[in-house]
Design a protein that fits this description.
Bound molecules: 4-methylsulfanyl-2-ureido-butyric acid
Largest sheet: 6 strands, mixed
Strand order of the largest sheet: 5-4-3-2-1-14
Shape: globular
Number of helices: 9
Oligomer: single chain
Length: about 300
């Protein structure tokens, strides 16, 4: 029997330095209205969805850095989004920069249910980039400077008649991210991303950025028998270009919806949660087929080392 989960992914075009949070929230609300018109139950917004991708800038002034962070969630800027989503009965995923009362900084996302409650919080574990200033590079990728490594792991929540997990951007490149959630019987994993089109470390053909993004989402969706909803912030933010390619991927590993622009754009699919059941019962029946006694190295070693043979 089908288990419908009408899922929308709300891609954001560029957010420039001059754009206010209130203006961004107004854009999120427009996308939410479209999700409502399409009868979505859940909408996925991007990583760091309230500001430009500020880790591209070297900053040392604490007050300047704080401007990009949220000291509480929800807060006055995002309250209109929470209110309208609750009124529509739409749940959502939202990425933002979190400043804790102890002044810890995390790259964070939340899942809000259809009644407007924050049911889950995730703090990004795989932080890409560097923490030093690279003045010769065309732009910085300072996630290791501005954020601490997430300290709450990869959780899955029973919510909205499904089991839902989440991660953020670079996490989607790591099989461990999805397997840890697959082992909690996740049926849907949602994420947002900001992926620069240019590699500052070595010369890489730009088309590979999109290829790797989709390749990995498709592989992880299938090998864990779950749906994936992935929302880009994309296009040229003050001249710094990031890939689009927001996508909904089914447990078959197929892309069932993909954005066609580098602007604000809503994509939608009538997901059937039951589609993953076949894979969970057969080819990816973890209890039956996994052999963790042969996977010990995965937790014992961080970096690649000598062969065991
Ligand atoms: N935001 C984020 O995590 N971006 C990284 C860029 C790394 S460069 C391949 C990403 O994995 O998309």
């Amino acid at each position: 029997m089908k288990r419908p989960f009408p899922l929308a992914v709300a891609q954001l075009g560029p957010i420039h330095l001059r754009d206010s949070k209130a203006a961004v929230v107004a854009r999120l609300i427009e996308l939410l209205k479209e999700a409502h018109a399409r009868h979505a139950h859940f909408v996925v917004f991007p990583e760091l969805a309230l500001t430009t991708f500020f880790p591209r800038y070297w900053m040392t002034d604490e007050a300047e850095i704080d401007r990009y962070f949220e000291a509480s969630m929800p807060n006055a800027d995002v309250q209109p989004l929470f209110d309208l989503a609750r009124q529509y009965g739409i749940g959502f995923y939202l990425g933002y920069a979190e400043l804790t009362p102890e002044r810890e900084r995390f790259n964070t996302s939340i899942i809000v249910d259809r009644q407007g409650h924050i049911v889950g919080r995730y703090r990004k574990v795989h932080l890409p980039g560097h923490d030093d200033h690279k003045p010769a590079a065309p732009f910085q990728h300072l996630e290791k400077k501005y954020f601490q490594v997430g300290n709450e792991g990869f959780k899955v929540w029973d919510t909205m008649d499904t089991r839902m997990g989440m991660c953020i951007c670079n996490d989607r490149r790591w099989p461990e991210t999805f397997r840890v959630m697959g082992l909690q019987s996740a049926e849907v994993v949602v994420l947002g991303y900001n992926t620069p089109s240019h590699n500052i470390h070595w010369s890489e053909p730009p088309h590979l950025r999109m290829f790797h993004h989709l390749l990995l989402l498709q592989a992880h969706a299938h090998e864990n028998a779950l749906w994936v909803g992935a929302a880009a912030k994309c296009g040229a933010e003050d001249g710094f270009h990031m890939i689009a390619g927001s996508a909904i991927v089914s447990p078959t590993g197929e892309v069932v919806a993909q954005s066609a622009s580098e602007e604000d754009e809503l994509i939608f699919h009538h997901c059937d949660l039951a589609l993953g059941d076949t894979f969970r019962q057969h080819v990816f029946n973890f209890a039956k087929h996994r052999r963790p006694e042969h996977y010990q190295l995965i937790v014992d070693r961080v970096g690649a080392g000598k062969p065991l043979g």
